[in-house]
Amino acid sequence: MRSFSFTPKVVFTVLPSTLAYSSSIFVAHRSAFFKYAKQRDISSSSVMAVLPSAVAFLLLVSFPLTVNIANSQSFIGVNYGQVADNLPPPSATAKLLQSTSIQKFRLYGSDPAIIKALANTGIGIVIGTANGDIPALASDPSFAKNWISTNVLPFYPASKIILINVGNEVMTSGDQNLMNKLLPAMQKVQNALNDVSLGGEIKVSTVHSMGVLKQSEPPSSGRFDPSYEDLMKGLLGFNNATASPFAINPYPYFAYRSDTRPETLAFCLFQQNAGRVDGNTKIKYMNMFDAQVDAVFSALNSIGFKNVEIVVAETGWPYKGDDNEIGPSIENAKAYNGNLIAHLRSMEGTPLMPGKSVDTYLFGLYDEDLKPGPGSERSFGLFKPDLTMAYNVGLSKSSQTPATPKTPTNPSPTSKKATWCVPKSGASDAQLQANLDYACGRGIDCSPIEPGGACFEPNTIASHAAYAMNLFYQTSDKSPLNCDFSQSATLSSNNPSYNACTYPSGSGSN
């Protein structure tokens, strides 16, 4: 967080009269003091906690004062996606990170080159297991031990591995087998760490999409989807017992995609807006990030786990997109990420969790030029492959005060094409069957793909899954999160309808 050192060291006696005098000076010049603190990004409450207020101010005005603020904040992290063919060498990435206030670094896998490059930097490293490894981890203790032996022991403690995420967004993958085996897999990884005396040093968890919530608005009504609740209780029991975090991926950007009013954009970008009042608590929320995080807190509280730490594993805003996408722009990306960082540094917290900042991993460090889907998917990077900033959000140690737009920019798309949710090329029949079962199990009308239905032919898993996945997406909130299906689906502007089989569509403004 922030550290303070006062020089020179002075030993003196403070008389009662001096205290009284200095107190009166403090009251008279309070605004000047706070202006001084603000210019240096110092929390006045932090300084006052160090010394009694009168003496602190007396020192401030009477003696040379050096305030060294740590250029790093432990609550700011970044994601390192690797679906790209133009990433800088790991050594260059490590050097870049050391020039910033980023103190935590999340990998989706366990790339040994980048883990090794971060050795002796002090940067906390989060690594992950693949979703496909979950069945083996759950059933075979030796698999978990070998995984730790391969991906942790050669690097730790020089490389500061702090967390292992078992899988990514498993609960909303639609794969019931993975969902059921997630907790046993986490337990096996924890046991493997315990066996090498690292159980207290490296935590084990998993990452969830906001789709695990059935309700999130207003924040006080946040609840988990009942179909996940029993499994969630088991996972949260593990988090609670091991003091590991509950990791979630809130994206105000996707919320804006579902509600493109200007006032919603301002609310999402931490910009001037009228706020939104939670009718239950009467709390006025001034930004979407706080509202989403508090909805997660309410969901945890509703099933008895309010003390489990929340970590934001992903959040971000794209700086460009396709012509039919609304919301991506450099101005909006700079406003969201820059204002979010400033909000975290303020240590205000959220209305339901005041006075602290949740660990937040920005998405992402670089663009991923090989990612499928709309252009925005390839445009979340804070830095370019040549290590220059895509835009300045105040992460550099040399300059942490970027100018962020005070009013929202609401670029209109040049066209509003219809969009459909379709399977990605190469998706396996097993995954598509899981998607089909998941979508039709959520109450959508799957009768068109039943015998005699307009979309029954061709009678293939791929065809039936495509129809069900799209219908699920169209009948939910049309959030891209609902066209993910464990990364086996994408949005398309090509109409997949055929003959008498009509696929419902949604406009690009949704």
From TrEMBL:
GO MF annotation terms: glucan endo-1,3-beta-D-glucosidase activity
- Name the InterPro entries on file: GH, Glyco_hydro_17, Glyco_hydro_17_plant, X8
Tell me, which GO biological process terms does this entry list? carbohydrate metabolic process
Main localization, broad class: secreted
Residue stretches making up the X8 domain: 419-503
Q: Which reaction does it catalyse?
A: Hydrolysis of (1->3)-beta-D-glucosidic linkages in (1->3)-beta-D-glucans
Q: Where is the composition biased (Low complexity)?
A: 401-419
The EC number of this protein is 3.2.1.39
User: What family is this protein classified in?
Assistant: Belongs to the glycosyl hydrolase 17 family.
In Swiss-Prot or TrEMBL terms, this protein is called glucan endo-1,3-beta-D-glucosidase
Task: Tell me the organism.
Answer: Populus euphratica (Euphrates poplar)
**Upper taxonomic lineage:** Eukaryota, Viridiplantae, Streptophyta, Embryophyta, Tracheophyta
